[in-house]
Records
---
Amino acid sequence: MHRQSWARGRAHWTLFAPAILVALVYGLMWQGLVLLGRGDGSVARISLFVFAIGSPLLLVYGFLRYNSVWIALAGDDLCLARGWPRLTHSQISLDEIASIRLRQSFIGRRFNVGEILVETRSGRRYRVSDIAEPEAVVNDLNQALRAFRDDENPGS
């Protein structure tokens, strides 16, 4: 049976957290040094450099990663992209999949972000990190996998 295509897992906003944190810390440190009259010192210059160069670079990294991480069920295939800088796209037939699991850290549970692990019958493992609402994604994918297996083996 051919399933309708749908995209489910997308990247989580926390990919931008490092850029925000660096901008806040170094921007506030530079501003504090300027207010204290030490804005021309080496620490202030380094703070300004990190704020002006590091924050935008981290934002670009977050943006590229945010737009290149996804996992989708398309017909009888699971398609996934592990994102920048690897830019690896994979397409796995549902009959090749042994399991789809979730891995979350304590922080990941707090922010509702996690890593989806897909293992094939041949033992190959695929990891898609930084997925938003990963528990719902894994539940939906496992439900689709069970439906596929029931369609393939109607007598079982």
---
Amino acid sequence: MSFDQIVIFYNEDIENLLMENASPTSKYNSIFSIPKENAKQAIEMSQIFVDCFDSAGENKLKFNLEKAKVAIQKRKSMTLTHYMDKSVVNQHGKISVAVDQVIGLVKDALKIALTPGDQLYQTFAKTITDGFTNVKKLADDNYIVWEHSSEHKTTYEYHALFSIANKTTGAFMCVIPMALTITVDISKSKLFFITVQDVHNYSLEVKALEVVEALQ
């Protein structure tokens, strides 16, 4: 397998590639960093996680890590390698620092090879940053679930999914569904104008898992 031609696919690219396999109701901001010939496999693997959300009650539409673990069993060729449920509480600092904290947590817990400056790292960092600074668009695209909003606090959950196949993953495809719950000390309306340089009190909860499957 040659990894000389890694392509970054975003949601609109994925839907254009294989419309018949892409779910129109997907709640994930999906990003693939893979050779183009492996796109079909990446989509099939990611579809396993389409329904891994609570369906009722006050947590409706929130990512359910246990459901995701069970869903993996539907595809016998996939293996769960790592999962995480970690929090960062009551931090005061720039949003850019919060992004770095999320990346650090995910790297450590899921053992993802992310090197600052390379294409995968930049794509990963942008996707996480969007969860703080591009909230209006993500909400319009159904990648965000609102939990609480008041004059001084807003809580929401952001869903993203990464599919990776490169020299580091070798003969395997790696898929990572993720839910990032963010609580920040401003109203929803002010949240729409936040930047990476803004300073706020925030807390974070990251739920994610990693599955792998041999490249087809």
---
Amino acid sequence: MNVFWRLIAVAVAALTLACSGEDTVPGSPAATATPAASPTPQIEALSEFCSMTSGYAIGYPTSWAVSQDVVFQPGVTFDAFNSPNLIDGASPNVTLLCRPLPPSGTTQDLVRQEMQGATITAERAATTAAGEGRLVFYSGTYTNGVRDHASVFLSKGACGWAITLTVPQGNRDAFMPVFLEMVKTFRTQ
């Protein structure tokens, strides 16, 4: 996995532990992270988040908290949508960011560029309201444990969009229905 994605993964893993659902966007429903009876999230109504900074909109579960414009490094921010379900002390989350496109501008080349060095366990097409993307599955080992990821990459305009689900190992399948509902609503403005 290239250095940028390793750093993003570390930042997301740290955010996973740090977010308690209290950092919400003004006007969005507040969520509190309390241990769930089951790590399996329920499909629920989606609220819409519109990023004026990055120029996109996405639906997210109303009980999830939003962390907007999280600074990763100078000039690079991402938005995070944090589940109230705590699993092993971590809150599963979905992050969204825009990366520079590879010279070809294709989604497949974006996947190759961003997943360089990662072991992709599966890859398939993914449909968003903004167009067709690629869904890839992979895992990573971090200081706070192994995390499973599912990322949708999409080339649109000047952005290489990455929508990524991060969960503690063994919990990806439980969160995929919610993640895919979110992905379907993603559109650029």
